[in-house]
Write a structure and sequence with these properties.
The protein has 330 residues and is α+β, with helices and mostly antiparallel strands. The protein is built from nine helices and 14 strands. The structure holds biotin (BTN).
Length: 330
């Protein structure tokens, strides 16, 4: 049983305080605007402070909100979000097993196309190939539920499209250059900063749902994560360092917008540019690699990525098409 964070009173107080950020807002005004008692206002202010908001209280003057930089509450993401579908509903958890699992439950309900699930901490984050995904505080752990109306064949485009949307958003909001590593890792100087996991349900040649899971090492301690994973063949890095004060909200909003643009391209069948743009940002083409799939290990040289996102590997005189797996550069 999941109980997501749904606090409309807190949301309203934050909105009011934000609209008066250069001045104090009196407890009386807050209580009148929200039809709450003064005691209830005070209780909610205390709750907001415990959630991480910096609110100055002054006797006789009231309350003043100081700019916050790192809170991922639904109303923070919605405020300024430019999408039409993705993020219409946002669920937030302080702690959850996996946002992907919660999105799977949402997928059983109607009217959830575009819903976003975000958590501060995941206790059982899932990675690709049944690996665990270490998800401490400081990361962006998010799942997006989509119910697209297109051919199941297009499903394989989504990992590529999502990693591209993320790389573009990181560049636009943080001015950090990233590379894309097949199948869908986002890396900085060869070290992984984000990964994508897609759970899809296809029924009688129709997509029932797609759940896109995105894990971004936004502001984490890479050493701590490396220690707790068994997979040692790639390095891990963080997008933002611990002494930097950068908000994850703008990145999330930009990413949801870029993803929606791509989603619309797929819906209208104009997908040609996705593969080209992915290849432009990729560090994989032309590399000698070892590929590990669930059934075999292969060595060869990457000659391309096809339109569906499959890896084209030249190995022992033949070009092989690999749909899923992991690569290490050799
Ligand atoms: C990978 O192995 O590279 C993919 C990692 C995907 C992790 C994200 S975090 C949010 C969502 N919830 C999960 O349990 N996994 C995905």
């Amino acid at each position: 049983m999941y109980t997501s964070f749904d606090e409309t009173t807190l949301d309203k107080i934050v909105t009011l305080l934000k609209s008066h950020q250069s001045e104090f807002l009196s407890g009386e005004k807050l209580s009148k605007s929200l039809s709450l008692s003064r005691a209830a206002v005070w209780k909610n202010i205390k709750k907001l402070k415990s959630l991480g908001y910096k609110i100055e209280s002054r006797p006789k003057s009231g309350y003043k909100l100081h700019k916050n930089v790192n809170l991922l509450f639904p109303w923070e993401i919605s405020d300024g979000l430019q999408t039409d579908i993705i993020g219409r509903k946002i669920y937030y958890f302080e702690k959850i097993d996996s946002t992907q699992n919660f999105a799977l439950e949402l997928a059983q309900k109607p009217h959830e196309n575009g819903s976003v699930v975000i958590a501060k901490i995941q206790t059982q984050g899932r990675g690709r190939l049944n690996r665990k995904w270490v998800s401490p505080k400081g990361g962006i752990w998010m799942s997006i539920l989509l119910r697209p109306n297109f051919e199941p064949a297009y499903t394989s485009l989504f990992p590529m499209a999502t990693s591209l949307a993320l790389a573009v958003s990181i560049e636009k909001t943080l001015d950090i250059q990233t590379e894309l590593k097949w199948p869908n890792d986002v890396t900085i100087n060869g070290k992984k900063v984000a990964g994508i996991l897609i759970d899809a349900s296809v029924e009688s040649n129709k997509i029932d749902y797609l759940i896109i899971g995105i894990g971004i090492n936004f502001k984490i301690n890479p050493g701590m994560i490396s220690k707790s994973i068994k997979q040692k063949n790639y390095g891990i890095t963080t997008l933002v360092h611990k002494d930097q004060s950068v908000s994850p909200v703008e990145l999330i909003q930009q990413f949801l917008l870029e993803l929606e643009k791509t989603y619309n391209k797929v819906l209208s069948g104009t997908t040609g540019t996705i593969q080209k743009e992915w290849i432009k940002k990729s560090s994989t083409i032309g590399k000698n690699v070892t590929v590990t799939t669930t059934t075999r290990t292969l060595k060869g040289k990457v000659t391309g990525i096809d339109k569906t996102g499959a890896l084209l590997l030249s190995s022992k005189g033949k070009v092989q098409r690999i749909l899923a797996g992991d690569i290490t550069y050799t």
